[in-house]
Amino acid sequence: QKEVEQNSGPLSVPEGAIASLNCTYSDRGSQSFFWYRQYSGKSPELIMFIYSNGDKEDGRFTAQLNKASQYVSLLIRDSQPSDSATYLCAVPLEYGNKLVFGAGTILRVKS
Amino acid sequence: NAGVTQTPKFQVLKTGQSMTLQCAQDMNHNSMYWYRQDPGMGLRLIYYSASEGTTDKGEVPNGYNVSRLNKREFSLRLESAAPSQTSVYFCASNLQGGNYGYTFGSGTRLTVV
């Protein structure tokens, strides 16, 4: 099992819909969870982080964390074509010394 | 406030040549990292420096060396470039360790022919 797993996609959603991106991780001791957005040819940009079980909302983005099931998800409401990008999940492993990234999910929002 | 600055942005090397990728941050971060990104494989950690004066290997360190020159600067050296090192390289920094989000540089696209 990979340390951080994501469905590579592409995930295609129509404009205005909710996009749901999922990530599972292997280390039960992980405390923080990060979502990065990466546009083609650009560097990753931090968009959400979550530390506690439950939901965290920031504008159109909601991060959901379930530590018992070891998954974290990102919901994007009212998806826009500008949301089309690769979304990377990142989890600190090995006693929190560094982040391990999933391979990313490609999201395509169709207008 | 420039954040994390990487140079160069693009480079083409011949097999066997050497080069150093430069990274500097102006956010007073303690930890710095070098990742490579290849299609379908995500970001893989090459080396990291938890604090000034320390460096540690990541997932894919073979063929690379690093130097944490001071708190601001963390360089990555390819001693004898190989085609397998063709990749996009990202430098990142954060306050300390994996429980804080990273700020990434703009990346270096390296091609080894």
Low-confidence stretches of chain B: none
Tally of separate helices of chain A: 0
Total number of strands of chain A = 11
Helix vs. strand class of chain A: mainly beta
Query: Runs of chain A with pLDDT <50, length 5+?
Result: none
Number of separate helices of chain B:
0
Task: Give an overview in words.
The complex is a heterodimer of chains A (111) and B (113). Chain A is an all-beta fold. Chain A has no helices and eleven strands. In chain A, strands 2, 4, 5, 9, 10 and 11 form a six-stranded mixed sheet that branches. In chain A, a hairpin with a 6-residue loop joins strand 4 and strand 5. Helix content of chain B is 0%, strand content 51%. Chain B contains no helices and eleven strands. Chain B has strands spanning 4-7, 10-13, 19-25, 31-38, 42-49, 56-57, 64-68, 74-78, 87-94, 103-104, 108-112. In chain B, the strands form two sheets. In chain B, strands 2, 4, 5, 6, 9, 10 and 11 form a seven-stranded mixed sheet that branches. Chain B has a four-stranded antiparallel sheet with strand order 1-3-8-7, with no helix packed on it.
